[in-house]
Amino acid sequence: MSDNPLLKVSGVSKFYGSRIGCQDVNFELWPGEVLAIVGESGSGKTTLLNCISTRLLPTAGSVEYRMRDGNFRDLYHMSEAERRFLMRTDWGFVHQNPADGLRMTVSAGANVGERLMAVGDRHYGKIRETATDWLGRVEISADRIDDQPRAFSGGMRQRLQIARNLVTGPRLVFMDEPTGGLDVSVQARLLDLVRGLVNDLGLAAIVVTHDLAVARLLSHRMMVMKDGHVIEHGLTDRVLDDPREPYTQLLVSSILQV
Amino acid sequence: MTDLATYNFAYLDEQTKRMIRRAILKAISIPGYQVPFASREMPMPYGWGTGGVQVTAAIIGPEDVLKVIDQGADDTTNAVSIRAFFQKVADVAVTTHTKDATIIQTRHRIPEQKLTEGQVLVYQVPIPEPLRFLEPRETETRKMHALEEYGLMHVKLYEDIAINGRISKTYAYPVKVDGRYVMDPSPTPKFDNPKMHMSDALQLFGAGREKRIYAVPPHTEVVSLDFEDYPFEIQTFEQDCALCGAHGVYLDEVVLDDKGGRMFVCSDTDHCEDRREHGHAGAMLAPNQEAAE
């Protein structure tokens, strides 16, 4: 891990009128690090994720990102063009529902190739080659390259969405409940895959989940949120094995044991 | 009481024409950019060229000579009625000869004969937004134009090659104008795309229902989008025109009977007639027309 953080989040708050979305969140994310944001439904996890990933303008605070040239830039002081360019090259966003992140009416190959074409790739053969390679890496067989995601199962769609996001070699990936809506065996396979990819590519990732097992498997560090506030923050194993806050203890003890 | 119905010259009132001219000037200044304008109701249904008619009405003067074509032909319903409309409301000279016209209003074709400096080609456009069927949100497509995010257009072309083995789009083939805006050249066959590039004539596009005007000024670069390994190419025809024998022009298929009989003739009727007058003859031209009459 390098000496400089990749992302600096300071004092981020989002209010919906008088209601709190999230309040005064501070953290730093280092390259290659996976941070999990956990908490129950309505605790502000997704609001926070959207604020960090420039999908939602925070009421207060700043989010700084270290660009490839090594300089920190405040995401909300960039032009929209720069921000959108960043989002489709250096970042990835994996939605809970693959239909939100995929183009359901174009083939799997075009889904993976879209980002390449967006950054100016104009050679069909090369785009297709890269797409085939990426489908292989997310365990989708090459003969499905011309099928539309509509013809894919939920797990395949989610894997396709991941391939589509990783094709430009991003340094930071946001994941919003990446395993939500998948059955347990598919979840396990997907988590295995994501863990492998994150390790191989040295990605930094912010994973929002209500599933502590996902956090345990994927993340190095985690933040526990409740009512818009970060109530506990630490190494994943520490937080899960030795929770300090009463709410975290409750959360950890409420995992179903089979 | 002879003139019961009196119109302002060219049907539209002067303020409306002024508004449309301002939109046209802006469109010429930013080649390929879709300028919104307050499209008026015209005495014809949407889809019949209300946008083109408004553009023509705004630029036409008493000295102009108007030609109207529909799918290349001067004698089809749309062409005849729009020509008659301007004869009535502007009392201008009309022609079917491409070279004599100063304003040519067209639906779906660019004349075969090379247009010259001073001529204006007015297109009737049904859907001006090239990204529309890929991205349904207007707010989003405007942003994509503003930020020059045109990757999606290539996704469509990629999809074509993946499914059909080639870029199968044959009309409304997207072009990039002056290295900046991606533009829908209205549903002209892609055969005509190269004619738009560095044209000597001014090209104006009017979409009445969608309330947009855009333009390609003379001598402007118009490049059809493609892939390096799948370059843009135009349609080619195996036959020559059955009437005038022309080669390398855009042909229409005409079904002759219910036994599979067909002929291929020039889509540009003026071009075809002109060639026949100059003694060219195709395979199916009656040998002696005077004798037949």
Automatic annotation (TrEMBL), chain A:
Protein name, per record: Putative phosphonate transport system ATP-binding protein
Keyword Zinc found: no
Say which domain of life the source belongs to. Answer: Bacteria
Q: Which NCBIfam families match?
A: CP_lyasePhnK
As one GO molecular function, the record gives:
ATP binding
- Matching Pfam families: ABC_tran
Its BP terms in the Gene Ontology are: organic phosphonate catabolic process
Domain called ABC transporter: residue spans: 7-252
Q: Which PANTHER family match?
A: PHOSPHONATES UTILIZATION ATP-BINDING PROTEIN PHNK-RELATED
Recite the UniProt keywords alphabetically: ATP-binding, Nucleotide-binding
| Record field: transmembrane | none
Would the keyword Transmembrane helix turn up in this protein's UniProt record? no
Family indicated by similarity: Belongs to the ABC transporter superfamily.
The record's listing under CDD domains reads: ABC_NikE_OppD_transporters
User: InterPro entries of this UniProt entry?
Assistant: AAA+_ATPase (IPR003593), ABC_transporter-like_ATP-bd (IPR003439), ABC_transporter-like_CS (IPR017871), P-loop_NTPase (IPR027417), PhnK (IPR012700)
Under SMART domains, the record lists:
AAA
TrEMBL record, chain B:
Q: Name one Pfam family in it.
A: PhnJ
At the top of the EC hierarchy, this enzyme's class is: lyase
InterPro entries the UniProt entry points to? PhnJ (IPR010306)
Family, per entry: Belongs to the PhnJ family.
The answer to whether UniProt assigns keyword Ribosomal protein to this entry is no
Tell me the keywords, alphabetical order.
Answer: 4Fe-4S, Iron, Iron-sulfur, Lyase, Metal-binding, S-adenosyl-L-methionine
Organism per entry: Rhizobium wenxiniae
Query: Does S-adenosyl-L-methionine appear among the keywords?
Result: yes
Reactions catalysed, semicolon-separated, are: alpha-D-ribose 1-methylphosphonate 5-phosphate + AH2 + S-adenosyl-L-methionine = alpha-D-ribose 1,2-cyclic phosphate 5-phosphate + methane + 5'-deoxyadenosine + L-methionine + A + H(+)
**Single annotated GO MF:** metal ion binding
Any one GO biological process = organic phosphonate catabolic process
EC number(s) per UniProt?
4.7.1.1
The taxonomic lineage of its organism, from the top, reads: Bacteria, Pseudomonadati, Pseudomonadota, Alphaproteobacteria, Hyphomicrobiales
Full protein name: Alpha-D-ribose 1-methylphosphonate 5-phosphate C-P lyase
| Task performed by this protein | Catalyzes the breakage of the C-P bond in alpha-D-ribose 1-methylphosphonate 5-phosphate (PRPn) forming alpha-D-ribose.
Locate the transmembrane regions by residue number.
none
